[in-house]
Amino acid sequence: MIACGLDFGTSNSAIGVARDGAAALAPIEAGNTLMPSAVFFDYETKGRVLFGNEAISAYVGQTEGRLMRALKSILGSPLIDEETSLGGRKVPLREVVEIFVRHLKHKAEAFAGREITSVVHGRPVCFVDDDDKADARAQAVLEGIAKRAGFRDVAFVYEPIAAAHQYEQTVQKEELVLIADIGGGTSDFSIVRVGPQHRDRADRGQDVLANAGVRVGGTDFDAALSLAAVMPLLGLGTQLIEKNLPMPNALYHELAIWQTINFAYTYRNERELAELVSLACEPEKVKRLLAVLRQRLGHRLAFAVEDAKIALSAEERVTVPLTFLEAGLAITAPRAAFDRAIDSRMDRLHKTARACIAAAGLKREAIETIFLTGGSSRVPSVRAAIGRAAPSARLAGGSDLLSVALGLTQMARIRA
């Protein structure tokens, strides 16, 4: 039997194939085994759908159409039951997710040279915070999507447990590890006993001591940075002339969150914002916001902010160019300001990591290693917050963006 491991991520996705006793990731875009979780519906060429970097390039190149990103984040939220307008027709958002998952499946089948009907599918520990029924519904929705995409046998595995399988390939002796998978939409933790003698066990139930998760991830950091640094240039925090009222802020929040950007593009929003320009104390800023709506530049703003967030993991301050909105427009974003913007979220990460250790019945000194994975694990304040949960543990890392996919594929190999 050929099986695959599918890491459908908020920001990026990968899929691997297990066959003939080996596991390998499939090339899914221009020879790469990782692609952005993005879909673009091209209105200029009726019916054409683009994926990954090709989707983003079409949007940036101003091809007429609609870009969809951070699709995984709608699972476990009311948005999963919403529809989006695509070329004059209403399409359920879960159908958009299905289109993307089916594309990954076809790429894996092309790599394997045959049909694949079995999948080990990654999932966060918690799709939804503190709501078991909503969490179960989110998994059921994702299972239905996978089956409609063509998978008949679907097994779910917590993403940090998959990452533990990948980390385990590198260890020389048994150890107790806290896996911290900081993804685009969620942060997930597992306490796992790993070691060379455990690698090929089909049942790892006794080795997994605890799991915990929280709906905090990289897209939340993007939103926080956008609202703190970029949206003030578009009028957030300014006043209206009449009665010195503040500028309404709902639209700024909608544009700062990846999965709601497209909902901001309505004629009503454009009309009301055009009226607010003449009522604003700083009309030139509100005009920029109006331009974002009229020119559908919300994702361009989000990409600029995301690039800044990534750069701030290595730099103390970065310049965020916004020349696509206005000639010469840019801001400087210091890391210290970014840290302040995400401080409350760091507290939630720290508490969730501590809760995971406590749920395992361990003292924090018992944790020998903290294995950090996921793109947002590179953020210095994230590493510090999680490190404080087990200060005597060594920090380890691997392939931040592919550990989960590799682990899922290895688990698919063992299961097959």
How would you explain this protein's 3D organization?
- The protein is α+β, with helices and mostly antiparallel strands and 416 residues long.
- It has helices spanning 52-60, 93-112, 132-148, 159-168, 218-230, 250-256, 267-277, 283-294, 298-311, 335-341, 343-359, 380-387, 403-415, and strands at 3-8, 12-19, 22-25, 35-36, 38-42, 48-51, 65-69, 83-86, 89-92, 118-123, 153-158, 175-182, 187-194, 208-214, 317-321, 330-334, 369-373, 394-397.
- The strands form 5 sheets. Strands 1, 2, 3, 4, 10 and 11 form a 6-stranded mixed beta sheet that branches. A 5-stranded mixed beta sheet has the order 14-13-12-17-18, sandwiched between helices.
- Helix 12 (380-387) links the parallel strand 17 (369-373) and strand 18 (394-397).
- Helix 2 (93-112) crosses helix 3 (132-148) and helix 11 (343-359) packs parallel to helix 12 (380-387).
- The chain is globular, with a radius of gyration of 22 Å.
- The N and C termini lie close together (6 Å).
